[in-house]
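Can't paste images in this forum, so I'm doing it all in text. The chain is below; anyone willing to post the predicted structure tokens underneath?
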Amino acid sequence: MILANDPRSAGRLDFDHLQDKLILYRFRDTSLLQEALTHSSFANENPGSGSDNERLEFLGDSILSAVISKQLYLRLEQLPEGRMTRIRSLTVRSESLSAIAEQLLLPEFLRLGQGEEKTLGRLKRSNAEDAMEALIGAVFLDGGWEAAETFVLRLFEDTLDRAIGGEIVYDYKSRLYEYLQMREVSPDVQFVLLAAEGPAHERQFTFAVQYKGILYPSATASSKKSAEQEAARIFLESVEAQDKEGFVTRA
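Text version of the structure:
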């Protein structure tokens, strides 16, 4: 909701308010900020209005991952790679990105096309996530690594601390079904038990996701539930990466 005395009520983006009061970073090149807030629908409907934020989103995703990875490496010297990967995934998951974007009011500042606006694009979590990653990419291009690292840590440090402390639990299995059901009415997916090995008190279970007859990389854990969750995480990382490249067919 935009209030009468809100600087956005004038019907234009107030970049001063956004930079000084919300994101707390002042751009030297505000065209990068504008690009970070430009949805592809706006760019498509308004030729000559500048680039959309998809390339910045790609860059920001990598910068965010690098900053969090560096922190985990420095702070958790004895933690194995697999555990660090899971903590990083919890820290940069879509829910974290969209929540922080909404705290910064980024959806209100997005430049959306008319069609996207009519379909409540400002309320779509995916648009908030993309804008957050694009903003990180824009800060990196504008101010370099140090500025981007400072920006990311200020916004994500609390989430990182909670992920390290085990306070964030992510249900990858539910996310898997949600992801596929957005694309298909009845997705052909199942969790396949590949092995159950070891003595009863040290049992290890290996599961893999089978989707449309294709068996994806497996995961092993000390409980069936944990193995399924890890297999779901591996599957999601694979198909979401393919989806961004346009390889996943929507039914």
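The chain has two domains: 7-164, 172-244. The CA atoms of residues 185 and 251 lie 8 Å apart.
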